[in-house]
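Lab manual, section 2.4: Encoding a predicted structure.

Procedure: take the sequence of the chain (93 residues), apply the prediction step described in section 2.3, and record the output as structure tokens. A sample record is shown.
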Amino acid sequence: MISASDTIVQDGSALFSPLDKELVMIDVASGKYLSIDAIGAAIWQVIAQPVGVDPLIDTLADRYGAPRDQVRDDVLAFLNNLASRGFVRIVAE
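Recorded output:
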């Protein structure tokens, strides 16, 4: 399970393509796909390189003027969903 203190990165196994303001991701092994909104797509771009989850939460809260606690909950749920599908992984520090 990903926590705010982790550093994460894309796993590299997903195929993805922009579609309007969304991003469609495909797990080739299972054939399942996931469509993510513009905010999820922005997160996906940032995690192309290893990034700390806590600083990512701070950046998004500032960018969107949203309460940090709500952003933390949403980001962690999103990242854990991606992790459960094998799209992201925790980076050992």
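Check your result against the sample. The mean pLDDT is 92.
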